[in-house]
Every structure is written in C-alpha cells, then in structure tokens.
Amino acid sequence: MSPRLPIAAAAVLALALGLGVAPAAAADDPPFRDPSLPLAQRVDDLLGRLTLDEKVSMLHQYSPAIDRLGIKMFKSGTEALHGVAWSTDYTQNGAVITANGTVFPQAVGLASTWDTALIKRVGSAVGDEARGFHAQNPTVWGLNLWAPVVNLLRDPRWGRNEEGYSEDPTLTGAISTAYGSGIEGGDPDHLKAAPTLKHYLANNNEVHRDTTSSELPPRVKHEYDEAAFKPAISADAATGVMASYNLVNGRPNTVSPDLNEVVRSWTARSLFNVSDAWAPNNLTASEGYYATQPEADAALIKAGIDSLTVDDTNGAPTVTAVKDALAKGLLQESDVDNAVRHQLDLRFRLGEFDPDGGPYGKITKDVINSPANQKLARETAAKAVVMLKNSGGALPLKPGKKVAVVGPLADVLYTDWYSGSLPYKVTPLDGIQERAASVTSSEGVDRIALKDVATGRYISAPAAGGDLKESATALGDTEKFDAFDWGQGVLALRSVANGKYVSRANWATLTNTADQPSGWFVQEQFKLEQQADGTYLIHYAGYETAYDWFGPNAYVKAAADGTLSLTTADDATHYAKEVVSSGLDDAVAKAKSADVAVVVVGSMPFINGREDHDRTDMNLAAGQEALVKAVRKANPNTVVVLENSYPTTINWEQDNVPAILWTTHAGAETGHALADVLYGDVNPAGRLTQTWYRSAADVPDILDYDIVKKDRTYLYYKGSPLYPFGYGLSYTTFGYQGLKATPKGDGYDVSVKVTNTGSRAGDEVVQLYTHQHSSRVKQPVKQLRAFQRVSLAPGRTTTVTFHLKTADLALWDVTRNKWTVETATHDVMVGSSSAAIRQRTTINVKGERIPHRDLSAPTRAVDFDDYSGVHLVDETKVRGDAVAGTDGTWIAFKDVALGHPAGVTAGVASTGGGSIQLRLGSPTGRLVSTVRVPATGGVYSWATATGAVAGANGVGDLYVVFKGDLRLKDLKLTS
Predict the structure, then answer these.
(1) In what helix (H) or strand (E) does residue 295 lie, and over which residues does it extend?
(2) Closest C-alpha among 232, 124, 222, 239 to residue 174
(3) Which of 39, 465, 517, 686 would suit a FRET pair with 738, their CA atoms being 20 to 30 Å apart?
(4) What is the pLDDT of residues 834-859, one digit of tens each?
C-alpha cells in the first residue's frame, strides 16, 4: 500500500515543501552539479554540504526542498504496476490538466504473456509516462516507482493476486527484470525512472497482514521467496525494495537485517529501500515490537530502510523520532548518512542534479496515452489472453454471424486500486460489435425493487443522486435497482434512476452516487439475507466487512419518515424482493436468437479480493455460473470469457462449455484485444502463471508458507489440477523434435526443434523444466528453468536453445548453510506446459554428496530437516532465527553422524522453563537425553542448558522433542 495524495492538495503541498528549481550549471557551481565527475564523488560532495537537520528531514517519504542549495523536494513512491496509477484529469491554476495515462493489463496478465521482450517495452512506456506525469506535477508523481510486485502467488486466494506475476520464482524473476529494465531506460549512468520491488518478503496474505508471521524454513526462504527478488536486483533492473508489512519468522520485515545483509549483497549498485505506508508506526502499534518510536525508527534505519512512508506528507513526527534516537545514542549520524547517501545516489541517476536534467529530462506530457502506447496496450492485452478450452472448432468465430454478448462484464471495464483512470473504454461488447454482422446484448442481471412489507413503501433513489429513502408505493425507475452478484452473497446495487451505485459514502445514509464500487473502504457492497418468512434483510457488507467497526449494526432500518439507517438484524426492516425483470431470462432470449453466445463473467476488482481482503473461496459467483449454465442450455455455441485476476474453480464450465478464454482486467483496449483473439486476428498464446485447482480444499491454510512440506504450487503439488501451471491453447499445433542437452562451459546447452504443424501462424511458449532423481531432501516434481515465446508461420521450424547452468540446479544445504549441487541424474524436459512435456532427456550432473550431518559444532535449530507443531521465531530483535516449541512438538535432524556423544548443550530461552528430549529414529523413539531448561527471564533472554547423552552412536535421525513452552536457537553434541 501507499498513501494517496489528493490532486487538489498538490499546489498547497508544493508551496509548503518549497519546490526549488535547480539552476543551470555555471562555472562556480559546486562539484555535485558537474555531471562529468564520478557519481560517488558527486554524492559525497552534496552529502558533505548538508546539515544534520537537513539529512534527518530527508528520511521521510516527502523529502523537503533545501533552498540554500537549490535542491528540489523529492517524493519517493509513485505506484506503477500496470501503468502510472491514480492518474486522473485535474485542475491546476484554472486549467484542466489531462492526466489519464495508458492502463496496461493487470500484472498477472502481463506475466501471462510469457514475453519478456514485450514486457520490457511495456515497462519502457510506463517509464516514459512517469516522466510525462512528473513534468506536469512532481509533487504528485515522483520518479521513484513502487513497482513491480514480485511476491510469489503461492496461494490463489491472496487478495492481491492481481498485483503479482506467478507462483514460480524463475518466471517472476524474468518478468520483473524485463519490466524494471524497461522502466529504467537502458542508459548506463541514468535512470528514466527508478523501480522498487514490492514487498520484501513472503507477503502473500492480507488477513492480519501487519501481525501475521510468514514462517520460512531456510530452504523455502532461499530457494523460493528470495529467488523471486534476486534476479531483478542482480540484473540492476530495480533500484531497491519495499519492506512488507508482515513478519518473517517472528520479526517485522520493516526491521529485517536482510535489507542490508542479503538484498544489498546481490548488486554492486546502491539501493534505495523504503517502508510500506505507515509500517514504521506498526512497529510500536499493532506489532508492539518496540516500546517507542525513536527505538523503532532507529532499528529500521539501521536495518536498511532509507525512506519512511508514514504520516502522509507530514515529516515532522519522523524528524522528531529520529532526532530523539540520535540524542539517546540509538542511532549515529553515520547511520543517517548511509540512508541519505542511498537517496542521493538515486536522485543523481535520475538526472536531478544535471544541468539539463539528464538524458530523460526532456520527456513531456505528450507521451501520456500516446497512440503508440495505445497500440502497445492492445497488443499486450491480446497476447495476455489464455485460451483454456476450444472444442469442436468453436473458436475462432466466423465473420458474418449474429452474436449475443451477455454477462455482467459484457459492456463495462473496471479499474483496480493501483490503476490509473481509463482515458477511453473499449468494452468486450464494443470490440465484438466492430466485427460481428449483428450483435445483441444483455448484462444478465436481475432488476429488482425492495418493498417494506410493513408499510408497502419502496426504497427510492433520486434521479439526481442523493439519499435513498422509503417513499413511493408504486414502481418507477427511481425504485428499481440492478443487482450484480459478485459471489458469496455480495451484491452491488446500481440505481436505474441515474446509473450510479448505492453506497454508504457519507458514513451516515445510503446514497446512489458511486460510479463503481471503489475506494480503500469499498462501501458499495450489500447482501440480501432471506428470512424464514420469505422476507429479506438488507445487510450492508462494505466497510464493516473488513474492519467490523459497525459490529452487528449493519442492517438497514427505515424510520417512520422513510429515512434509512443501520441497526441490528433484530431491529432491521423486512423487505419483499420483487424481481422487475429477470436478467437470466433476458440473456437466454438473446442467446437463443443468436448464432453464437459470448458470456462475459468474472470479478469486480474492488470486491472479489484486493489489498487488505483475501478471498475465502475460489468459485465463480453463483449467479454468474447460473447465467453460464442457462445460456449454454439455450445456445450450444457458447463461448465463456472469464475476466478476473486469479484462478477460479470453473469445473462445470470446463466440462460443458465449448470454448473458454481467460483474461485479467486488461485496460482500455480489453474489448479490442478480446475481439482480436475471438476472431482469430491474434492466435492466443498466453499461458497460466499459476496452478488452477479444482477446489479450495486442494490448498492448505493461507498462512502456511512452507510450500515444500505442504506440497504447494506446481513445484510440489501431486494432485490433478483443473489447469496446470504454464497451460494455454492455440489455434494451431506445434511439434517438438530432437531435444539435446550438451555440456558446455558452466552448464549445458539445451536445444529442441519446434515446428508449427498447423495451418495458422502462431506463437508457442517453449518451457524448460528439470527434475532431480535422487537427493538428500525432497525435490520438486518439476521446476521451470527457462522459457521462450517463439513465433512460427505454418510449416516453419525453429531451433530453441537454452543455457542451463549447473549452478541453477543447486539446493540450499541446511547442514552447511550454503548452496550445493548434488551428484545426481536430472530429467530435462521441454513442453508447452508443466503437464504437457513433449520431449525429455537426462543429464548426469557431477556435484557432491552432502555428508552426514555433523552436530559436534553449534547447529542452528532452524536448520532442521523436518518438524511438527513448532513455530519459527526471532532469536533477537536485530537478527537470527530460532524455534519455538510446546509440549509434544518436535524438530528432526536427519542422517546425523552421531559418533558417541557424552553430552549436549543448547541455547534456550523460556519464561516458564521446561525441557527438551533427544530421541532416535522418531519423536517417540529411544530417549538418549533430557535437557532441563530453566526459566531464563524472557523469550530474548538466552541461556545455555546442558544434558548428558547416553546410547547414541552410528548414523541416524535425531529428534528434539519439546516439553514446556520454550525456544531453542542452537544445539551441539559434545564428547
């Protein structure tokens, strides 16, 4: 998340912060303004001219101008996931400024292209437009972009699934590198804009996101979560990371030592790391990790945060806390210098201190929503479409046919929280109308009226927009509402009187004033809850849904004068729901009269899962599924277009509908892109970036992050998914021949011949996977190593070549805390998806055999091989992981060279004391030691406990069983 600065406040803020203008370079200008000097020298020169107060002020997101040096205000953070976000027309100095930028497909749609060259072009366009917006108003649109999101889509129920790329780190790393490098612009010394990777680390749930801990065993952390962030940083395609709200192994990511010790180790470049919005205050509030804000701010700066996103535009609380931390010795001026140096390095690379603004300084607003970018948006949206099913030649559609375009998303385009406003809209209906001989349409939603059963009065909505109230006793347009079903009983009610949605926007009454469900608190959500007597209660399900501020007082009650308010269910007004017209009947009638029916269903991005709201199921809304079934029955030539941002359990549709296309919410050109695919101008080649499961029962709890132990994602899942990772169909067919894996240099050259064996030109996404036959540890079922999207005319053949580095086959060896390549046979597989392997061969990799575990040296408890019931926690508030256990929980160290130990020492912490048992072979195996653990005074008060060991010898599995509530950081077997 990041705070939104109202456009109307921009001019006031500009004056308050003092938007100084850097003067042109002159002979007597200081060295920092001389672009011919080395970057480090320029940074050091400017840093040396700043006072301590000035440096401290720069630690806030809104770094103020320093007029005496001619330094402008600098804002960190402009959202740019799929275009510059929160862009809209606004008035400045009496003039209307056009600021509707290009909106590309949502991030998960960008990744579904599997086309890094295309995504680099998209990133470049976003970087251009960021410059264009910045040229208009640098207060609102800074050049430090908070994108892309590289959190792995480990759980398809994550509310922010639309923001990420894939459940796979290789694909995520490739797409994020392409997008980031496009944003940066390619100049070796300057940045067009500065991309920041979100959100470090393991942030894949929204429920209690600021207090939940993502527990990552070392292999999961290194092989999976870190692996998504490393590629873009290592390729210098990102300029920093944003620390996420959540904790990892008990420590808030805002103070994670990884920010300095891991992330900065991946590149020689300076990185500028930022906090998420209000996260600094979470450390003392919801997380309670530090007692005071000076302690918290000192800790996060020392950990590697360079910019604090908190208190909106008001930097005073941050300045006060940091100065207090300096006065108390919690922070040194050198710590402040490090953070400010990182900011200055970024600003120099952005050209801010160059006399001409650097190579990108002359980009103007003319790039915003340019014809070239509109064309690119259409191309990208079409390439992102995934064809999930096509039986009996249902697609492509033939020209000259009569088409019924029906469904709640047939003639609308929705934006999301991190989207810009659409400069124009081409809906699916619009796109098809340009191609079909004739078109009929229906939204397929019921038009209803709600009548108070006690008074006979209907709820009415004024045509001009305003408060709803009970008034009329006869039906007119002001009493009618279109009820859009978004699943799990949640409806959005659109007033027929004015086309606006019913909202609780003024926090007091219900109004018909919203253009669409939107905002941070989505207040356009209602449920009609049927009672035993057949009447309905109107349940307001907006703001209260997430925060429960209204508690049970979320039901509509009408006063004697007809005004509406919220009360309890027992006190609520009972209504009769009258169906004025059936959306299903209308859609069926249109479908019956057409040659083909296209049903457009899916999600509303502000309702069906988004930031701060996870999904609790993966189903298509019941009303939408009923619509699909009815239309399919009415017209066998039915095509379903599913437009949403995540995997959906469309089992019935897959079994019964001839053709299915999936697209994310793809921006202004959605309708053109869909028509291009539906009519065959574009041969679909999008591929799924996640596993689509058949049921939510196929995935574990959303808070369980151990993908290895819980068989998560295509890497470890052994079931039969609805659609596998990498899946997608084409209008043509492809053949694979002659797979070879030849040793070369630091690995293997893998080549395969791919032929278009069909009658249409098309793209194939060739995917390279490996599987290791034998290993000390559990290995993935298969793992993506590389991919390439290739275009082929009918009958044409190309040779696709990948280079597979031996080092890429390494695993994280917990026995020695390092990357290790084992000696093993690997399957090398190529195909069109993870489940459609077309050619395979094997390679024999020479590595090493991981030796028996040696516990005669101190061994971290977290480096276990297996576990049950324990939690991973923080050793100290600064660094280190430990294991917290209670009665009967355990960790195991496998394949241990026991020798003949006489004793064991353990680093322990406990408030109440207890013991740990060492057992052989199993958690209930032979007891060889009991170590008494004293009460140490707290979970961060570590002591050494010892015990005698008897009867342990040879090689075996050692289980550490907890008795009592305690923490273990390490243990050592002694002679």
Answers:
(1) helix 293-303
(2) 232
(3) 686
(4) 999 999 999 999 999 999 999 999 99
Domains in the chain with CATH codes: 379-443+582-695 (3.40.50.1700), 454-573 (2.80.10.50), 732-845 (2.60.40.10), 859-974 (2.60.120.260)
Q: 548 vs 198, 545, 553, CA distance in Å?
A: 28, 6, 9
Query: How is residue 751 written in tokens?
Result: 């080549």
Distance of CA 595 to the CA centre of its chain: 40
Q: How is residue 429 written in tokens?
A: 């209906």
8 A C-beta contact, residue 723 and residue 690: no
pLDDT computed for residue 10 by the predictor: 45
Write the DSSP assignment of 93-161 as a string of letters.
Answer: TTEEEP-----PPPHHHHHTT--HHHHHHHHHHHHHHHHHHHHH-TTTS-SEEE--B-----STT-TTG
Q: How many residues does the chain have?
A: 975
Q: Which helix (H) or strand (E) holds 743?
A: strand 734-744
Find the helix or strand (DSSP H, E) in which 17 lies: helix 10-17
687 in Cβ contact with 833 (< 8 Å): yes
Q: Which residues, listed in sequence order, are joined to residue 825 by a DSSP beta bridge?
A: 844
- The whole-angstrom separation of Cα 465 and Cα 733 is 54
Confidence of residue 692 (pLDDT cuts 50, 70, 90): very high
Tens digits of per-residue pLDDT, 139-171? 899 999 999 999 999 999 999 999 999 999 999
* Nearest of 237, 29, 61, 44 to residue 147 by alpha carbon: 237
pLDDT in tens, 633-687: 999 999 999 999 999 999 999 999 999 999 999 999 999 999 999 999 999 999 9
Question: Is the CB of residue 32 less than 8 Å from the CB of residue 353?
Answer: yes
Closest to 80 in 3D by CA, of 202, 239, 291? 239
Comparing C-alpha atoms, which of 116, 235, 107, 233 is closest to residue 174?
116
The pLDDT assigned to 69 comes to 97
